[in-house]
Design a protein that fits this description.
Blueprint (H helix, E strand, L loop, with lengths): L1 E7 L2 H14 L6 E3 L6 E9 L2 H12 L6 E3 L1 E7 L4 E6 L3 H15 L13 E7 L2 H12 L8 E3 L1 E10 L2 E11 L4
Antiparallel strand pairs: 1-3, 1-9, 2-7, 4-8, 5-6, 6-7, 9-10
């Protein structure tokens, strides 16, 4: 199994991102746009996972007791080197705490977290010819949109399936936050 832990998006945010994506898409732009059903905020990518590790992850993540997490999207941007167009997510204290607790929980199952700064985002499109295509896309963004904020009371364990048209995700487990 190829797994990751993430936060699902609120319907209002999905609608806003869908409208932006529809406006920015153009025939032949060379970008591979992600489907709205796959949008999420990654907390930790786990990668290939054994059955034993899966059971450990589920047990460990069910032990987490944290407050609900406020989510606020910020600006649209690009990771030029990776060829990714995204919506940036504000790193709040609550989001960072959840991400760190998820990492600590999965470490007990044998996963080692990459020591990079956490950069939460929602991937909207990919480009193989990064610089040229993303540069054209940046020019078309115009003024930065305002997004709805939301509070998430849950996070999910997803399984990722790679395919010729991109990745497809299925929810494997659902975890509730306390909401206090």
């Amino acid at each position: 199994m190829r797994l990751f832990v993430g936060i699902p998006l609120a319907d209002a945010v999905i609608a806003e991102l869908s409208a932006i994506s529809a406006r920015l898409r153009s025939g032949g732009n060379g970008l591979r746009w992600t489907a709205s059903g796959s949008w999420h905020i990654t907390l930790e990518f786990l990668g290939d996972t054994s059955r034993e590790q899966y059971e450990c992850i589920v047990a460990q993540l069910h032990k987490l007791h944290l407050r609900s997490v406020p989510i606020r999207l910020e600006e649209l941007g690009c990771f030029d080197r990776a060829g990714v167009f995204f919506a940036d997510v504000k790193v709040s204290h609550e989001l960072l705490l959840l991400q760190r607790r998820v990492i600590a929980a999965t470490a007990d199952c044998g996963f080692v977290y990459e020591a990079r700064p956490y950069q939460p985002h929602i991937t909207l499109a990919h480009s193989k010819d990064q610089r040229q295509r993303l540069s054209k896309l940046k020019d078309r963004i115009g003024s930065q949109p305002k997004f709805s904020s939301f509070v998430t009371g849950d996070f999910l364990l997803y399984e990722s399936f790679l395919g010729p048209s991109g990745s497809r995700y299925e929810i494997r487990q659902h975890f509730r936050l306390d909401g206090r």
